[in-house]
Amino acid sequence: MLFNSFTFLLFFIFFFTLYFLLRRQLLAQNLLILISSYLFYGWWDERFLILIMLSTVTDFITGLAITKQKPTLPQALALTAFLLILGSILHWRTWDTTAWTILPLLLFVGLGWLLHSYLFNLPDPSRKKAFLLFSICTNLTILGFFKYFNFFADSFQQTMALIGWQVDPFTLNIILPVGISFYTFQTMSYTIDVYRNQITPTRQFIAFAAFLAFFPQLVAGPIERAKHLLPQFYQLRTFNSTDLKTGAWLAIWGLYKKIVIADNLAPIVNKIFADPSTASSGDLMIGILAFTFQIYCDFSGYSDTARGTARMLGFDIMINFNLPYLSKTPTEFWRRWHISLSSWLKDYLYISLGGNRLGTLKTYRNLMLTMLLGGLWHGAAWNFVLWGAYQGTILIIYRFLRVDDWLAQRQSPKLICWLQDLGLILIFFLITCFGWLLFRSPSLEIIQTFILGLNGFTYSHHLPVLAFYLWPLLAFQALQIHYNHPEPLPQLPRFLRLNLHLFILFSLLFLSSKGGQQFIYFNF
Q: Which residues are catalytic?
């Protein structure tokens, strides 16, 4: 179910009506969110629900076990009902008889309970580490199998072929579950935070399940932390006109960025990247520039719609993008782009590896490993690994040159600082654009063709189209800079606000791309 579809509009209207009627009943509201989120997620393929339900049960029990707690009787009954639903899905979609559905499930539950009983009786430090390891291994095994099995199988076969060994291909017909990378990282952060004593484990199973499956941000983030979002499921949500208006605006603005800007730039990008050998130098430049803004508007558009939808429901979701193309350094860029992922990688990977506490060379190693894994997180393909290596290299170079330190300590006149900032922004924007070439190109041959073809400045007939769709975005971002706020609309004069609303409305009606294209990050 896509945000940019009529089906979602009907779904949300029906859901919001029930949600409002249940505004004084917290448990019923959370249960409605959970059921609706599963309906939203299962709309693609109900088999995907099996995986998120397994992660939910695993980490709910693991969080309790880390602090030496066991589920209460009501919680055990809720978990049992959860597993019965899981068995029903397996029966419906996989096997022909109930026996062959229930028996493997009972075997899984039985082995899981035996393992839980054994680990639960270990001494305190060992128990905590064992349950954390169990949670991480379970989640990464599910993620790795469905996302990376065929990639590593193909890579192994190709590597053996290079040394003269012929290995029979062994791949599986695996469908990549939508959003698996996002909710896997979200549930892992919960368990890790419990292990680090940064949060207390929840005993409210429905609230936890709803937090993990919350439909506005389930499929493409932001990757929320439990300490921020989970407590919002413990209290009644209030409705007020300000949240409804600003939430609706944010959701509509996100849809505008997706279906008016990103989806109309997509044909240009697809055409040029499909066969760059026939494109002029100007077309190649426009192709890279168009993708640079396509992926930004597509992904930030989803995040804005998610934040706006959640706000109308009384939830606060973190900002995931903050004018990233105005960054002067890679460190600043990763504080502005996909903030939820970059902060996750920093807190749970980079710092766990030692961060910058173990000397210069190990700091460089940690930066490179973090970005390599960040690249691989985006997809099972070598272009993502190459993009991650490129981003790690840029981080290392800027750190070696101490650019961030220089920016923090400079004492030049204001005009000189402004010119320096402008120059650094332009330089890093070009560096970012080249990174998106690596990210978007499906093969090294495509990258080589682009590089060899960028041999001069020529006019491209795509330029007016690019300018036509981008100027409203740039104008709005100028307002964000002027008012120093990500949501400047309330600060605008009423007349300007009314005209902006009308502009967005008519653009959605008459300039929207046809076909309801899927969000790019659904593939990750």
A: 378
Q: What is the pLDDT of residues 192-225, one digit of tens each?
A: 999 999 999 998 999 999 999 999 998 887 999 9
Share of the chain above pLDDT 90, in %: 50
At 210, list the tokens: 């709803």
Q: Are 61 and 113 in contact (CB under 8 A)?
A: no
Residue (of 358, 445, 436) closest to 391 by Cα position: 436
pLDDT tens-digit series, residues 145-174: 887 776 666 665 666 566 666 655 555 566
Distance between CA atoms of residues 157 and 35, nearest Å: 43
**pLDDT given for residue 167 in this prediction:** 58
Report pTM. Answer: 0.89
Residue 296 near residue 324, CB atoms below 8 Å: yes
Q: Per-residue DSSP letters for 43-89?
A: TT-TTHHHHHHHHHHHHHHHHHHHTT----HHHHHHHHHHHHHHHHH
| Residue 522 burial by Cβ neighbours in a 10 Å radius (0-12, 13-18, 19+) | middle
Q: In this structure, what DSSP letter does residue 201 have?
A: P
| Whole-Å CA distances, 458 to 173, 216, 281, 292 | 45, 43, 6, 19
**Which pLDDT score is estimated for 156?**
58
Q: How far apart are CA 317 and CA 486, in angstroms?
A: 14
Distance CA 504, CA 308 (A): 16
With CA atoms as reference, report the closest residue to 212 among 173, 234, 192, 185: 185
In degrees rounded to 5, what are phi and psi of residue 224?
-80, 150
Dihedral (Cα; 426, 429, 434, 437), 10-degree rounding: -140
Residue pointed to by tokens 């960054």: 327
Q: Which residue has the tokens 């307002």?
A: 479
Q: 489: Cβ–Cβ under 8 A, 6 or more apart, which residues?
A: 246, 249, 497, 500
Q: State how far the Cα of 489 lies from the Cα of 486, in Å rounded to an integer.
A: 9
462, two tokens = 């795509």
Residue 136 CA, chain-centre distance (Å), reads 19
The arithmetic mean of pLDDT across residues 277-287, rounded, is: 91
